[in-house]
Amino acid sequence: MAKGTNDAQLLIQSLRKAYAATPTTLKIIDLYVVYAVATALIQVAYMAIVGSFPFNSFLSGVLSCVGTAVLAVCLRIQVNKDNKEFKDLPPERAFADFVLCNLVLHLVIMNFLG
């Protein structure tokens, strides 16, 4: 059992070391993704405890959080300098795409609310 624990500690240390080299902008986007997913999980837990009487509201809230997290992951992929696929895309354009897609997402969600 000690070997398995040692392997897990080595894995965690190597991941921590690799993440320390990540640029600050990507870390901020990662925090935003974690916040959006945590908000969705809190809404699901609240629905499980209290109930889902206005089901459209519950779906809108969760889909808003999940959709925003997905768009933020797409932004992270586009802004990452190590990604060769989007090397010609300036970060300002990627952020403008993120804002525009978020606007469309939330307009659809507001329409779904009724």
From TrEMBL:
GO biological process, one term: protein N-linked glycosylation
Keyword Cell cycle: no
A family per Pfam: DAD
InterPro entries: DAD/Ost2 (IPR003038)
Keyword check for Membrane: yes
Membrane topology: Multi-pass membrane protein
Transmembrane segments: 31-49, 55-75, 95-113
Keywords, in A-Z order: Apoptosis, Endoplasmic reticulum, Membrane, Transmembrane, Transmembrane helix
Pathway per the UniProt entry: Protein modification; protein glycosylation
GO CC, any one term: oligosaccharyltransferase complex
Domain of life: Eukaryota
Cellular compartment(s): Endoplasmic reticulum membrane
Subunit structure: Component of the oligosaccharyltransferase (OST) complex.
Recorded family membership: Belongs to the DAD/OST2 family.
Described purpose of this protein according to its UniProt entry: Subunit of the oligosaccharyl transferase (OST) complex that catalyzes the initial transfer of a defined glycan (Glc(3)Man(9)GlcNAc(2) in eukaryotes) from the lipid carrier dolichol-pyrophosphate to an asparagine residue within an Asn-X-Ser/Thr consensus motif in nascent polypeptide chains, the first step in protein N-glycosylation. N-glycosylation occurs cotranslationally and the complex associates with the Sec61 complex at the channel-forming translocon complex that mediates protein translocation across the endoplasmic reticulum (ER). All subunits are required for a maximal enzyme activity.
Protein's name in the database: Dolichyl-diphosphooligosaccharide--protein glycosyltransferase subunit DAD1
Species for this entry: Rhynchospora tenuis
